[in-house]
Specification:
The complex is a heterodimer.
Chain A (H helix, E strand, L loop, with lengths): L2 E10 L2 E11 L4 E5 L6 H9 L6 E6 L2 E2 L5 H7 L1 E3 L12 H11 L6 H14 L15 H14 L4 E5 L7 H18 L2 E5 L3 H7 L2 E6 L2 E6 L1 H5 L2 H7 L3 H9 L1
Parallel strand pairs in A: 3-8, 3-9, 6-7, 7-8
Antiparallel strand pairs in A: 1-2, 1-4, 4-5, 9-10
Helix pairs in contact in A: 3-4, 3-5, 4-5, 9-10
Chain B lengths: L24 H20 L2 H27 L7 H16 L5 H23 L5 H19 L10 E2 L11 H27 L2 H11 L1 H6 L4 H27 L1 E2 L1 H4 L2 H14 L6 H18 L7 H15 L3 H9 L9
Antiparallel strand pairs in B: 1-2
Helix pairs in contact in B: 1-2, 1-6, 2-6, 2-9, 2-11, 2-12, 3-4, 3-9, 4-9, 6-9, 7-9, 11-12, 11-13, 11-14
Classes of the chains: A alpha/beta, B mainly alpha.
The complex binds adenosine-5'-triphosphate and magnesium ion.
C-alpha cells in the first residue's frame, strides 16, 4: 500500500468537513475522488499533504505515519500535488517554475540536473514552446499543465490532482486525460484525482471514492459507483450531473 | 474518447542552456561599474570625491544586502539598520575598549549581526507582509532603547575612539584611504554574494517563496530555514560596514547607529534600481545619492529630504514597481543577459 487513510476527520469550527474517511491505495492505481461541491475533496488532499492537520485519524504514506507532517516534508517523502486554483510563481519563467519542483522535490536535484528534468517534463506536458515565458502570462489551460509539470518534476511516488480538467475545453480535456494515463503507465506514479468531469474520471480511474458532506458514501469500480443509488441521490441536487452519471 | 489517441509528435527542443551555463556577463558588468567608482577619486584626486563615492559604496552594500531579503525573498525589512547599528556597536566596543584590530572587530561586527538575524529569524519570519515589516521596526527601536541603557557601550553618550588608534593604520589621512578601499572591497564582495545567491538553487527557493510561499512549501522548499538564512545573509555586510563606518567616524552614539530613516532610504534605493536584480541596488544607490546630493545643496529641499524620499518611494511603487533595471529588462528583453 502506498497510502493508507485511517478514520480521517477534519473540523472547521462547527463545520465537519470530513468524517471518518478510510481507504487504502495500492501503488500503480488511479483513484478517482468525486462528490458534489463542498463535499470535502480538497480538504482531504489538504489533510494528506499536510496543509491541514486532520482533527482525527491517521495518514500512512509508504508505511510511515505522516499525520500532520509539514507540506515540505511530504514533498521530500515523494508526494506531489496540483492546486484546484492554480498557483503559478508568476514572475518566474515556466521553466524556472518546473525547476523548483525538481530542485526541492523527492530527489532534491542540483540546479543543472533539475533544469534538464524540467525540459523533459515540459515536453511531456506539451509546454516546451512556452518555457521562456513568465508563468503569469499563460492561459488557464497552460497554467493547469504547468501545475502538472511542476508536480511531475518532483518525481513523486504519489500524485494528487485537484480538478486538473476544470475550465478546459473538450480538446484540452482529452489531451490532459491522455497525459494522466501516461503518467501512470510510463512513469509508474500512483494518482488520486479529484474531478467533476464525469466521463473523464470514469474513464481513467481504476477505482472511485465518493464523498458527500464529508462522508465516504460509496467506493468501488467506476461501474459500481455509477449504479450506486446513494451516489445518484447525492448528485440529485444537481440533476445535470446525475443524468450524466446515469448515462455512463 | 477518440481524440485521445492523437499522440504528440516528439518536438524538437531548442532550449538555451540558461540555467546550466551561468551568465557571468551580468556580474562582470556590475562589478566593472563598481570598480570604476572606486577608481574615480584617484582620477579627480580630490578628497571630496572620495567621500561622495564612499557614501555611494556604503549604500550599494546595504542595498545589495537588503535586496536578498526584499528583492529575492519578498520580505520588507523596515528596520534593517539595526544590523548596521548593532554590528557597529559590537565592533566599536572591541576596537575602542578592548583594543582589537579593525579587521577582527569588523568580523565580530558581521557575526553578531548575523547571530541576531538568526535568532530573530526563527521568531519573526513567521509573520507575513506588513506584520513582519512592523516587527522589524519594533526590533530596531527596542535595540536602540537597550543600547541607550547599556553601560558597557556608554549608554546614551556612546563611545569615542582614541585618536592614537589611527596611527596603527599609518595616520589619520592614510587611514581614510584605507577605509575607502576596504569599503570598495566589501562592496564588490557583497554584490558578488548577491549574484551567487540569485543564481543558486538556494536563491531559486527564495524566489519561489517570494512568489507564493505556501505553494513553494508544497513543492518542498523548507521556507522557515531558507528565509532565516536569507535574513542572516542580508545582515552580515551591514554589520561589517557598520564597524568600518564608525571607525572612520571616530565615535558612535545610539541615535546615528539606529536611524530608522536610513533603513527607509535603503529600501528606496533597492526599489528605484530594481528589486530582485543584482544590478538594481547598485544603480538605485547611485541615482538616489545623486538626487540626495542635489537636494542637500538646495536650500529649499535641505530640510525635507526625507519627505522627498517618501514621495519618491510612492512614485516608484505606483509607476515603475520594477525599478530602472526591471523596467529595462521588461522593455528590452535582449538586455536580460547583461542586466541581471
Ligand atoms: N480553511 C477552511 N476554513 C473553513 N472552512 C473550510 C476551509 N476549507 C474548506 N472549508 C469548508 O469545508 C467544506 C469542504 O470544502 P472543500 O474545499 O474540501 O470541498 P470540495 O469537495 O473540494 O468542493 P469543490 O468541488 O467545490 O472544490 C466546504 O464547506 C468549505 O467551505
Ligand atoms: Mg475542491
Amino acid at each position: 500500500m502506498i497510502l493508507q487513510v485511517e478514520g480521517v476527520g477534519k473540523q472547521f469550527g462547527g463545520l465537519q468537513a470530513l468524517l471518518d474517511v478510510t481507504f487504502d491505495l495500492p501503488a500503480g492505481q488511479i483513484l478517482g475522488l468525486i462528490g458534489p461541491n463542498g463535499a470535502g475533496k480538497t480538504t482531504l488532499f489538504n489533510c494528506i499533504n499536510g496543509v491541514y492537520a486532520p482533527s482525527a485519524g491517521r495518514v500512512i504514506f509508504r508505511g510511515e505515519d505522516v499525520t500532520a507532517s509539514k507540506t515540505y516534508d511530504m514533498a521530500h517523502r515523494g508526494l506531489a500535488r496540483t492546486h484546484q486554483i492554480v498557483r503559478p510563481l508568476n514572475e518566474l519563467t515556466v521553466r524556472e517554475n518546473v525547476t523548483v519542483g525538481a530542485c526541492f522535490g523527492r530527489e532534491g536535484h542540483t540546479l543543472g540536473k533539475a533544469s534538464q528534468i524540467a525540459d523533459e517534463v515540459l515536453a511531456f506536458v506539451e509546454l516546451s514552446d512556452r518555457h521562456d515565458q513568465l508563468a503569469g502570462s499563460l492561459n488557464v489551460g497552460q497554467k493547469k499543465r504547468l501545475e502538472m509539470a511542476r508536480a511531475l518534476a518532483a518525481q513523486p511516488y504519489l500524485l494528487l490532482l485537484d480538478e486538473v480538467l476544470a475550465g478546459l475545453n473538450p480538446s484540452e480535456i482529452s489531451r490532459m486525460v491522455d497525459i494522466v494515463k501516461r503518467i501512470r503507465d510510463e512513469r509508474s506514479v500512483t494518482i488520486i484525482m479529484i474531478e467533476h468531469v464525469m466521463h473523464a474520471v470514469m474513464n481513467v480511474s481504476d477505482r472511485i471514492i465518493v464523498l458527500d458532506y464529508g462522508e465516504q458514501i460509496a467506493e468501488g469500480s467506476p461501474e459500481e459507483v455509477a449504479n450506486n443509488p446513494k451516489v445518484i441521490e447525492a448528485y440529485l441536487g444537481d440533476p445535470e450531473l446525475a443524468e450524466q452519471l446515469l448515462n455512463e | 474518447m477518440s481524440e485521445n489517441k492523437v499522440a504528440a509528435p516528439a518536438k524538437k527542443l531548442r532550449f538555451m542552456p540558461q540555467l546550466a551555463g551561468r551568465p557571468y556577463l551580468g556580474l562582470s558588468l556590475t562589478l566593472a561599474v563598481i570598480v570604476i567608482m572606486i577608481l574615480w577619486p584617484l582620477v579627480t584626486g580630490k578628497d571630496i570625491t572620495r567621500e561622495t563615492v564612499f557614501t555611494i559604496l556604503l549604500s550599494v552594500t546595504l542595498a545589495s544586502s537588503l535586496n536578498i531579503l526584499l528583492g529575492y525573498t519578498g520580505y520588507v525589512s523596515f528596520g534593517h539598520v539595526v544590523f548596521f547599528g548593532l554590528g557597529g556597536y559590537v565592533g566599536f566596543y572591541l576596537l575602542a575598549i578592548q583594543g582589537w584590530s579593525l579587521w577582527m572587530a569588523m568580523l565580530a561586527g558581521g557575526l553578531s549581526s548575523a547571530l541576531l538575524a538568526y535568532l530573530l529569524g526563527r521568531a519573526i519570519l513567521r509573520l507575513r507582509g506588513a506584520y513582519f515589516a512592523l516587527a522589524t521596526i519594533g526590533i530596531n527601536e527596542a535595540m536602540r532603547a537597550f543600547i541607550n541603557n547599556f553601560k558597557p557601550f556608554g549608554g546614551p553618550i556612546g563611545m569615542t575612539l582614541n585618536f592614537q588608534v589611527y596611527r596603527d593604520y599609518g595616520g589619520a589621512s592614510q587611514a581614510l584611504w584605507m577605509v575607502f578601499y576596504t569599503m570598495g572591497a566589501l562592496t564588490l564582495l557583497a554584490v558578488t554574494v548577491s549574484f551567487f545567491v540569485r543564481t543558486s538553487k538556494f536563491g531559486l527557493g527564495l524566489l519561489a517563496i517570494r512568489e507564493d510561499e505556501d505553494a513553494a512549501e508544497v513543492m518542498g522548499v523548507v521556507a522557515p530555514k531558507a528565509k532565516t538564512w536569507a535574513y542572516v545573509l542580508s545582515a552580515i555586510f551591514p554589520g561589517i560596514i557598520g564597524v568600518l563606518f564608525f571607525f572612520k567616524n571616530g565615535s558612535i552614539e545610539p541615535a546615528p547607529a539606529f536611524r530608522l530613516h536610513f533603513s527607509i532610504e535603503t529600501i528606496v534605493m533597492v526599489m528605484l534600481g530594481g528589486q530582485g536584480t543584482v544590478l538594481g541596488p547598485v544603480v538605485g544607490s547611485g541615482l538616489y545619492q545623486g538626487i540626495r546630493g542635489y537636494l542637500l545643496t538646495s536650500a529649499i529641499f535641505k530640510n525635507i529630504q526625507l519627505a522627498v524620499a517618501g514621495g519618491l518611494l510612492l512614485l516608484i511603487v505606483l509607476f515603475v514597481p520594477d525599478g530602472v533595471i526591471g523596467w529595462l529588462r521588461h522593455r528590452f528583453p535582449f538586455l536580460r543577459r547583461v542586466l541581471q
